[in-house]
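Hi R.,

Here's the chain you asked about this morning:
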Amino acid sequence: MVKGIKICGISDLETLKYILSHQYPPKFVGFICNFKKSRRYVEYSKLKDLVKIKKNGTNFVSVLVDPDDIILKKIKKLNFDYYQLYDVSPERTKTIKENYNTKIITALTINTHKDVELYSKYNEISDIILFDGKGYEKSIGFNHELLNFVPNTVNKMIAGNIKIEDIPSFRNKDYFIDLSGSLENEDGEKDKKKINKLLNIAIKNET
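And the predicted structure, written out as tokens:
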């Protein structure tokens, strides 16, 4: 079954309010907190105001690429439920989890079977393992069949060029689904019509 939806790359209050007030809100909303190369990056001064909003049961996720202690200390008191970590070693991941008392989504970028196998190094210290395509914000896909050998006991999330229309094909998979680029218009802004379509399709497949 589809465990739930994560909408990533939110950067404006109007869209965030729309998502959180939806009849079928997602389980997660992600904010790009330190990866400045992404057009979805949110400056700290804006971020701290953005995440003050009442979450209505949705988990807020701080998306971080190889974060240093400066950014971790800055966001420590913000309204986040999870830190989603890219390019962080298992040892550093454990330290971050313990020092900042937060749940962890470990993000692995996948191209080959060997990339998938890395999950075993993180599984005991991570609450969710995210299998993403290479390229971070570029929404590059990967062969999802590479995940077939990952045990059902692993709490899995997948991302990487997933389209709204793909959701029904995951009906028999125990995944959280993470979307970003497919919810944007030609200007790179989140499209409320696409978000509405996603959330209505997703609820029908959360069985």
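The chain has seven helices and eight strands.

Let me know if you need anything else.
M.
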